[in-house]
């Protein structure tokens, strides 16, 4: 891991703020007037039905898509994210659902893919030590950093992809469906890993369809419906209110706890 941890934000500091962000694909409004705030040391779950705009929002923040309108503030400054490299440079890392790992390369090579310490003279020993240190810090269960990715389980692959995204010490890490297609034990391992990432002070946005996983790890749950905000909830919000917001039975609901918080009545 690079030693630029001073770029990480102070706990609770606002890392990301979106105001009025919209994205049209021709006549299709994928996102309309999105508002979103994410703080350091916080996991925000982005939930919503198929087509709600979750992946589009992540892609806007990853520099893959350009917003049609709206303001993105990152680290206190208004930013544009013209391409994925620009997002990465600013400290926004993304683990896309397909993980983009190379099956035939080992764990070290995958963590350092394209970011070799010294591209002219591959510093294999230093990269191996750093990869091992990073995985240890995350208490990741990878038998050997010299194992090829093809031999790893789904959970271990997700772990490698997350470790890879942490290499440049991003302020924000976004995970698209990190537990989809994982078994019970592997899901628990990945959720633990997400908590450790949060505890290191990174801000985390996690897309998930699994409400159990969301409740287990999220500090806040942001619902999107048909490309619009449709409520902010907490892990102790009732299933009924969460499902109602996701399916559209309620409109832009603010949970009772959010109202108490806004009124300063919560401890
Ligand atoms: N590149 C694109 N071109 C045109 N329309 C798109 C494009 N990407 C997304 N859309 C549309 O934008 C809307 C939101 O899609 P998006 O993939 O963001 O939803 P999602 O919440 O991630 O859904 P899912 O849970 O199924 O992954 C959909 O109507 C989709 O068809
Ligand atoms: Mg999606």
Automatic annotation (TrEMBL):
It holds the Pfam family ABC_tran. The keyword Cytoplasm does not apply. GO terms for molecular function: ATP binding; ATP hydrolysis activity. InterPro entries: AAA+_ATPase, ABC_carbohydrate_import_ATPase, ABC_transporter-like_ATP-bd, P-loop_NTPase. Keywords: ATP-binding, Cell inner membrane, Cell membrane, Membrane, Nucleotide-binding, Repeat, Sugar transport, Transport. Residues 16-251 form the ABC transporter domain. The keyword Mitochondrion does not apply. This is Fructose import ATP-binding protein FrcA. It comes from Paraburkholderia saeva. The gene is frcA_4.
